[in-house]
């Protein structure tokens, strides 16, 4: 059985935009419940708010045992609600087939400040 | 019944003043309340007045004086710049409005309120709207004497709580007596407990060393700073050279100038206590900058920050220690802290036990709850008083009242404002009893 994760709406509906900040897994890797998958920097204003923009970093955590088949985004890539983030299968060697549902996930808002200071100039 | 003729009344103890034309906040025929602010003008005091820091200009807002139907009086103003600049002599006997069907109590000389802002620079001098422009501090007070003072030195939420979206008028409608409220800008130097304490303790020699270091190092290597980056550096230096907690304030009243002294109470935001600050590598001072400020910087400012500062992670224990030190440095003054909203709109964690240690250590909601708990410990030690915005947000509902998790509704800020005023009144800060 194949599953596909799409970017959640984050309450902002079609306005929210995301930036793939960090991928935590590799294609072909098994994921257990509680494993982090990806960090998304989300701006629910869709980039429209310049003063004190509603930006947060959110970690998507899988909540069921899966095999990661493919990421559809690269670090630094911008995405919007409904865009595909990753595909999974329940069985390790399942043949490709259309996805039947979204995986069960949790979203955790995390502190993200430190990356700025260590970023290359 | 004859309409009540509302006069300007004596101001500044009768010392001659000049004013701009009156601008109306409500239309002719408006059904007003006695303490409702209905018109405003600019008062010119001159650079040699006690308001030199604020460029010698004060905005005066007039109440109607009585409940009833307000009729605009004939004005000498001719619109345009004559309504912005102080061209007219103040005439205490001038009748500027009438109130029809006025109900008691009715006052021919109405209550008035003052607004003033301290600009970052003279060139940020737009006067197109009330209290418009780039200020590092704004404040407001009623025109009578005996003020209780509140200084708000938190993040942007405090602008919404005290200045509101109507230039302090909602707060002044709540507080019964003569109050003086000051709001400080939180950008770019975020007012954390440690930066505020360092501002208190910084000597003139240390301020000069910071100024000389920035002058020597900012843009000295790498790309030339843009105009916006120079303004960032200047605004940061402005914050580092000031100490808002030791500010004292002149006041203008109907009776004359008075010395408002330092604020009786100080209100901070625990949201300002960022998980990470930065320490200057050679001079040792601390800066805290919002993430969105950091992300907006150009290459020259980024390079300067990275070369001049080292990041510092802040534990909840170290933040609590900073609050204790700050409270100890402010004997006799009440310290209030608006706590952190600790539920995040997009978080959907059902099972914390399944999370790995790295994720647990970086959960923003857990850190906010830990910080709020630390505030409760400090409150029990009588170091500060909590304004529980977290409980108010939970009570009203996050999805409706803080839909993006950061910016609240009018009802949310009204509830936090009322709670702050209630606590100030309970602690006996003059003027802050809730109006009945």
Q: Could you describe the 3D structure shown?
A:
The complex is a heterodimer of chains A (about 120) and B (about 425). Chain A is about 5% helix and about 40% strand. With about 120 residues, chain A is mainly β. Chain A has one domain: OB fold (Dihydrolipoamide Acetyltransferase, E2P) (Beta Barrel). Chain A has a five-stranded antiparallel β-sheet, with no helix packed on it. Chain B has 13 helices and 21 strands. In chain B, the strands form four sheets. In chain B, strands 2, 3, 5, 6, 8, 10, 11, 12, 13, 16, 20 and 21 form a twelve-stranded mixed β-sheet that branches. Chain B has a four-stranded antiparallel β-sheet with strand order 1-9-7-4, with no helix packed on it. In chain B, α3 packs parallel to α8 and α8 packs parallel to α10 (about 365-380). The longest helix of chain B is centred in the C-terminal third of the chain and has 17 residues, at about 365-380. Chain B is globular. The mean pLDDT of chain B is about 90. Chains A and B meet through β5, β9 and α1 of A and α6, α7, β19 and α10 of B.
């Amino acid at each position: 059985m194949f599953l596909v994760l799409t970017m959640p709406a984050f309450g902002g509906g079609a306005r929210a935009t995301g930036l793939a900040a960090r991928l935590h897994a590799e294609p072909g890797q098994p994921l257990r419940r509680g494993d982090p998958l990806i960090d998304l920097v989300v701006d629910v204003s869709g980039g429209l708010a310049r003063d004190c923009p509603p930006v947060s970093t959110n970690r998507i955590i899988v909540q069921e045992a899966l095999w990661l088949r493919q990421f559809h985004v690269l670090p630094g890539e911008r995405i919007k609600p409904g865009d595909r983030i990753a595909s999974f299968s329940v069985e390790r060697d399942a043949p490709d087939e259309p996805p039947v549902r979204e995986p069960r996930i949790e979203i955790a808002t995390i502190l993200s400040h430190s990356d700025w200071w260590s970023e290359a100039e | 019944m004859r309409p009540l003729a509302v006069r300007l009344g004596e101001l500044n103890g009768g010392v001659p003043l000049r004013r701009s034309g009156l601008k109306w906040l409500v239309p002719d025929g408006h059904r007003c309340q006695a303490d409702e602010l209905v018109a405003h003008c600019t008062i010119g005091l001159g650079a040699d007045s006690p308001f030199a820091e604020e460029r010698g200009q004060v905005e005066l807002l007039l109440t109607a004086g009585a409940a009833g139907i307000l009729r605009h009086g004939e004005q000498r103003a001719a619109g345009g710049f004559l309504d912005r600049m102080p061209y007219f002599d103040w005439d205490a006997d001038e009748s500027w409005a009438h109130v029809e069907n006025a109900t008691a109590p009715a006052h021919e000389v109405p209550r008035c309120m003052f607004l003033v802002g301290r600009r970052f620079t003279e060139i940020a001098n737009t006067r197109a709207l009330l209290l418009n422009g780039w200020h590092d501090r704004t404040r407001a007070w009623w025109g009578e004497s005996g003020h209780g003072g509140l200084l708000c030195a938190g993040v942007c939420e405090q602008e919404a709580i005290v200045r509101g979206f109507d230039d302090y008028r909602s707060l002044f409608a709540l507080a019964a007596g003569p109050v003086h409220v000051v709001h400080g800008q939180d950008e770019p130097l975020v007012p954390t407990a440690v930066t505020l304490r360092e501002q208190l303790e910084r000597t003139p020699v240390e301020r000069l060393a910071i100024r000389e270091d920035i002058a020597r190092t900012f843009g000295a290597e790498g790309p030339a700073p843009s105009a916006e980056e120079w303004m960032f550096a200047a605004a940061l230096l402005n914050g580092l050279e000031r100490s808002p907690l030791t500010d004292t304030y002149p006041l203008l009243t109907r009776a004359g100038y008075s010395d408002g002294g330092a604020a009786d109470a100080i209100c901070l935001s625990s949201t300002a206590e960022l998980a990470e600050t930065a320490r200057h590598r050679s001079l040792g001072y601390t800066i805290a900058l919002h993430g969105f400020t950091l992300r907006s910087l150009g290459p020259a400012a980024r390079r300067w920050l990275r070369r001049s500062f080292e990041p510092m992670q802040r534990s909840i224990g170290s933040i609590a220690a900073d609050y204790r030190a700050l409270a100890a440095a402010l004997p006799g003054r009440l310290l209030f802290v608006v706590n952190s909203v600790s539920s995040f709109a997009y978080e959907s964690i059902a099972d914390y036990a399944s999370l790995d240690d790295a994720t647990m250590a970086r959960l923003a909601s857990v850190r906010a709850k830990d910080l709020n708990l630390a505030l409760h410990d400090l409150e029990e030690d009588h170091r500060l008083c909590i304004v529980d915005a977290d409980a108010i947000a939970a009570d009203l509902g996050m999805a409706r009242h803080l839909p993006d998790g950061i910016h609240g509704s009018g009802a949310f800020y009204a509830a936090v404002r009322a709670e702050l005023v209630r606590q100030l009144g309970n602690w006996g800060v003059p003027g802050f009893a809730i109006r009945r």
